[in-house]
Amino acid sequence: MSFPEKLYFTVGRLFPRLGYNKKNQVVRLIYEISLKEKIDPINLAESFTDQKNFKGLKKNLIERRYPKVPYQEALSKAYLPVLSKTKNPARLDGALFSPNKIYYEPGTENSKVLKNTAREYPSAEFIQINSLKEFTQEASEEFFDYNSRRDRIFITKESHDFFKRCPCTSGCLNCNYYILNAGFGCPYECEYCFLQGYSNAPGIILHSNTEDFLGKIPKGQLRAGTGEFMDSLILDNLTEDAGLISAFIKENRRNMFFEFKTKSVNIEGLLENAPADNIVVAWSLNPEKIISRHEHYTTSLSERLDAALESVKSGLRVAFHFDPIILYENWEEDYLEMASLMLSRIPHDAIVWISVGSFRFQRKLKPVIETRFPSSELLHGNLLLGFDGKLRYLQEERAAAYKKLCDYIKKEAPGISLYLCMEDPETWRASGLESSFSWDYASLG
Q: Which run of H or E residues covers position 58?
């Protein structure tokens, strides 16, 4: 009997009058409390046997799960999905990325992506397919297991959906960012990654014809970048997109900022080109405690800052994303230390912007994280349904965190542009930031 099955059996035995939905809620709350408090869930369930009715039982469980949240708010905003009875833990052993099958579409046979992939993975099996769409329609359900994505690369010839506006969440202030889609999927195993919620990508997808679409990037003052659906640079040794895109932007789109977002240190492709003041390399930053616990296979904080400094010395501009901020006991010390380290290592005039955002996610991702990382502490906070239907920390917790970090940065480096990512106007005001976006296009030569 698995752990969830044992818990369901125990709750059914202790509270035999509970119906299906009520039993699921009780099991879910006991499960979350036991993980958060590091106590035995069976003993915890037995400690509530004096409760005479479901309403009183749920009230006690809600108050224990969210002790710092007003009861009615926690009751109305808690998301309590059915606890999965199966586990499919993330694969955290072995190499970061060692694909054994490479699938490629017609028209990609002579692409640099395929040639580079063949050089990097000579023992892999190379298989031509008619199209990714047709292949996925015929593949079995097991083929889409997220853990197996690191075993396969799909090299495609993209025909649409290359450049689009960032789909900002309803109710949030829009930063007018544009996304260049050069592929899909990431071999890193960040526990909070939203890509885990996708069930239609059977591997890492790399487009072979990025150059065909560069001319469709609009002219004018705008801010765009890669890094939405895959790390911008981790697989640049295969795609060579960083050098290709940066050279085009430098020569043909002088009045726009273009950003490469990464957790890697794979910056060689960018450094090979002469620098341009509208090319920005951006790193997602978290304290080393968070990186080591929740960002599996990624580079360390020190390695990211070393790469940022090397980029600056080569003439590139840099940016940083404190996102997602994870709230835990004494988080302030760790995040302020991280910010201090960044500002002490990187020249302030080379930093074009810093974004700040907190852990938030679609509700469907909650059971996925639990299934893939069953011992993770990532979900222990006050994560309740927010203004946009996503699970978020309490608004006052988010605003306090943003204000603490942003006040520190404004004091130490007043010239750096700061903005919140995916936040509503009320939180902007509570954080002490101007709820408007302005980028220094005048600095572009």
A: helix 54-65
CA distance readout (Å), 380 to 75, 88, 369? 16, 20, 12
Q: Which has the minimum average pLDDT: 27-36, 80-89, 317-326? A: 80-89
Q: Between 171 and 402, whose confidence is greater?
A: 402
Among the ranges given (303-312, 406-415, 435-444), the one the predictor scored with the smallest mean pLDDT: 435-444
List C-alpha distances in Å: 75 to 62, 362, 397, 445: 7, 19, 18, 55
Say which residue the tokens 């977002």 belong to: 261
381/81 Cα distance (integer angstroms): 16
Q: How far is it, in rounded angstroms, from Cα 82 to Cα 29?
A: 10
Closest CA relative to residue 338, chosen from 317, 323, 353: 323
Neighbouring C-alpha atoms within 13 Å toward the C-beta of 293? 12
Of 1-5, 18-22, 111-115, 161-165, the range with the lowest mean pLDDT is: 1-5
Tell the residue number behind the tokens 């490469």, with chain if given: 260
* Lookup result for tokens 């790390």: 231
Enter the DSSP assignment of 429.
H
What sign does the CA torsion over 7, 12, 13, 18 have? positive
What integer pLDDT is reported at residue 427 of this predicted model?
95
Give the pair of three-digit tokens for residue 156: 């495609």
Which residues are CB-contacts of 207 (< 8 A; sequence separation ≥ 6)? 113, 156, 157, 158, 162, 181, 182, 183, 239
Say yes or no to pLDDT of 291 above 80: yes
pTM of the model: 0.95
Domains and CATH numbers, the chain: 3-77 (no CATH), 162-199+209-431 (3.80.30.30)
Return the axis-axis angle of helices 331-345 and 301-313, rounded to nearest 10°. 20
- Residues sharing a CB contact under 8 Å with residue 307, sequence separation 6 or more, in sequence order: 264, 265, 267, 281, 283, 299
